[in-house]
Write a structure and sequence with these properties.
Elements: E1 5-6, H1 13-23, H2 25-31, E2 33-37, H3 39-47, E3 52-58, H4 59-64, H5 66-74, E4 76-82, H6 84-90, E5 99-104, E6 119-122, H7 128-140, E7 145-149, H8 158-164, H9 167-170, E8 173-176, H10 179-185, E9 189-193, E10 200-201, E11 211-215, H11 224-227, E12 232-235, H12 247-259
Helix pairs in contact: 7-8, 7-12
Length: 260
Amino acid sequence: MKEFITISSRDNPVIKQINALKSSADKRKKEGLFVIEGLRQCEDAFDNNVHIVRLIVTKEAYLKHTDIISKFGEKSDICNIVQSSLMDKISDTKSPQGIIMIVKIPEKFDDIKSGEKRYIALENIQDPSNLGAITRTAEALGFGGIILSSGGCDPYNPKALRASMGTLLRMPLFITDDIADFCLSKGLNLVACVVDNTAEDIKNHKFSKTDVVLIGNEANGIKDETLKKCKTKVTIKMTGSAESLNAAAAAAIAMWESIR
C-alpha cells in the first residue's frame, strides 16, 4: 500500500505549486501539469490513464472513500494527506470533497483522420465554461475531437475542466497557432458559423464528412484572415430581438446540424 506523507504547512512548496497551477496557464504549460479536484474528476483521470504525479487527500476523505483513494494511490507517483483546513486553502470549490490530483498534461493525441470522424474547431474561445459545455456536447454527439486555437482559454483551466464534466480528459484536443492552416493541412474544410444574414442558412447547408464547423470568439467572432480560408459561411437564423447566441449554444446547434 502506498504511503501517504503528511503536509501540514501552507508554506510547503507543494501547496504553493497547486495554487500556482490553478491560477496560471503559463505555469501549467511550463510544467506540463494541471490540477483536478473532486472524486468524479479524479475517477475520470484514473479511468483514462492520465499520469497522476501527486494525490492529495484529507483524512476524512480517505476514511470515506478508502477503497477508491487507495486505488488512486497505487497509480500516483506521490501521495499526501493534509488537514481539512489546509485543503480549504488549495481547493477551488465551495464545498471541497478533500481529493486533489496534480496530473500531467496528456501528450499529443493520434493525428486527425479526415473523413472518418467529425470535429469542431474553436477560434479564441475565452470563456472556460463555454469550452467545457461545447466539449460535453461534442462527446455526446460522437465527435472525434476538438480543434483549438492557442489564443483561446486553456483547456486545463479548473473552470473549463469542471464545466466539461470530465470530457476534456477524454476527448482528443488538437491545439494550433493557425486553425485554418491546420485544418487545411489535414484535409478538412472549415465551415464558419457567423452572425450574418447574407450567409447560408445552416439548415440548408449539405455538410460533407470533411466539413468542420468553426465557432469564433464570443465578442469578436472569427478573424478576417481565418474567414478568407473557410470553405463557406453559414448562419443560424433567429427570430425575436436576440442578435446572437451564446457560443456554447451556437456550437451545439451547429454540431447537431452538421451530423443531422
